[in-house]
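Sequence, please.
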């Protein structure tokens, strides 16, 4: 059973940057593809970014492409989401997820963290 704990969220102004981290424990982190999702109040959870278990492939939602960057450090069992040029519409709770399927749908992921709140003011 893999446990995921996110950190790094906060309140920032539009145009600022944040770096989210997700620390994994309880399993073999390098066996899993990892993803970031977000959910704003009243909206469905949406895909943000994903990274192949080796880090060799990346995928992004169109809304964050060119602004966000996902990376991982398998030696430290951690996945990151660097968020630049933040916009008010990026405001959401951000969740880290892990799974064995390479997918953008939330249902494909087996393990989830509790999330970290990101709020971007205009």
């Amino acid at each position: 059973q893999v446990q995921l704990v996110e950190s790094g969220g906060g309140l920032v102004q539009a145009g600022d940057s944040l770096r989210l981290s997700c620390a994994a424990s309880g399993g073999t982190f390098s066996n899993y593809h990892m993803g970031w999702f977000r959910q704003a109040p009243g909206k469905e959870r949406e895909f943000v970014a994903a990274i192949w278990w080796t880090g060799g492939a990346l995928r992004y939602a169109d809304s964050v492409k060119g602004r966000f960057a996902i990376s991982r450090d398998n030696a430290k069992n951690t996945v990151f989401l660097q968020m630049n040029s933040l916009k008010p519409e990026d405001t959401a709770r951000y969740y880290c997820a892990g799974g064995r399927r390479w997918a953008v749908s939330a249902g494909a992921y087996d393990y989830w963290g509790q999330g970290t709140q990101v709020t971007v003011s205009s």
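The radius of gyration is 13 Å.
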